[in-house]
Structures are given as C-alpha cells and as structure tokens.
Amino acid sequence: MAADFLRRRGARVLARNLRVGADEIDLLVAWGSLLVAVEVKTLLGGDPAEEFTPAKAERFRRAGRGLRPMPGRFDLVTVCVRRDGVGLRWLPGVC
To answer: What domain range includes position 17?
Structure first.
C-alpha cells in the first residue's frame, strides 16, 4: 500500500524490507537520482507518526548509513486504519 502510494507520486521502488545488519529499511525508493529510505508505520486509529520514536529514528538512520550509496533522505509514510477507511501520509526528511 505504501509502495503504491509513493509510486503514484513519482517514486521508483527499488527494494522492500531490506535487511541491513540487525536493522531494516521498509522501502528503498528513488526520486530521480535521489535515493530515499522510507520507514512505514501502520496503526489502527491514532497517529502512526507518534510511534516513530527517537530510538526508532536512530535505528533507521543507522540502517541507512549501512547502505552504499547512502540514502540522501529519510522519509516516513504513515498508514492509519480507521472504520471509515485507510489514510496515508508522507512525511519527507523526518530524520
């Protein structure tokens, strides 16, 4: 769902669930020549962005530093599942 959401906005999905040592990058995408690591947070109700804690952000950055070439940006896509449907939000440059 998040990959399709970004693809519709012009991203090219390069990898999903990419393991980097003990860490993981949910999506690796390209926006033109810019390599972007994407964390996807899903929550039933509430704001999934609140689940992206400073500790999670550090693990996300650490995973990105393990890639070559290193991502030029780190983004977050939130997926909020509610009774009336699903809401997706893209937050570029979160860390």
So the answer is: 2-91
69: CATH? 3.40.1350.10
In this prediction the pTM is 0.91
Query: pLDDT for 64-80, tens place per residue?
Result: 999 999 999 999 999 99
**Structure confidence by residue, pLDDT tens digits, 28-62:** 999 999 999 999 999 987 889 988 999 999 999 99
How many Å apart are CA 9 and CA 28, to the nearest integer?
Answer: 15
CA 94/CA 57 separation, integer angstroms: 8
| Contact status, residue 39 vs residue 74, Cβ threshold 8 Å | yes
**Total domains in the fold of the chain:** 1
